[in-house]
Hints:
With 210 residues, the protein is mainly alpha-helical. It has eight helices and two strands; from the N terminus they run ααααββαααα. The chain has a two-stranded antiparallel sheet with strand order 1-2. Mean pLDDT is 79; it is low at 167-175, 181-193 and 205-210.
Amino acid sequence: MTKPPGVAIHSLHNVVNRYLRVTRPEAAEDVSNGNVDIIVYLAWHDNEEIFPQDIEQRFGVTRSTSCRVLGLMEQKGLIAREPVKRDARLKKIVLTDKSRHIAEVLRDNAKNMERILLEGLEDDQIRQFMHVLDVMQTNLVQTGLIGDESRYPSLEIQEQDASKSQVPQESQVPQKTCDDYASNNRDARDEYVSHVLRISQEMAIARNRK
């Protein structure tokens, strides 16, 4: 009997996570899963200004917890805090060269996994598969039962949000900082591979929080 879609997706997710664990690069061996999740998040948003409250919202942690975790990561040389030109009171979180290297080797390992995962599939099959996944995700997110839609990267939802407002919003100013507390086909294929990777990472982060 064919597995229900939810069971099949969960099974594949477990296999992907297992593969990534057993092939984890040496450079990331001594970094905790929680720190890796934050490094991956910062790497995905490298062109944006990320503040402590963004970490709190993304990972569902309190301000005191984020300050403690970020403080330890700073001590380990994994992140740095840089002042923002428009407001000297703000300090954005950026990756150090050490954590950028970790993010790079993790990304390379994940891309290699994706190549193995997609072997034998044509570009049209991958495109259709990604569309089906996105529709499934959108259906569940739009029930309104699982929280903030922005935590779940649905392409369809993102397109809907973009059509509602064409005016970019500035990053919210935090009420307090932690310091207050102490080829064309190949290109298309790569784009879909990156999206599969992003979904896998988002699912892994959600699983680690449970």
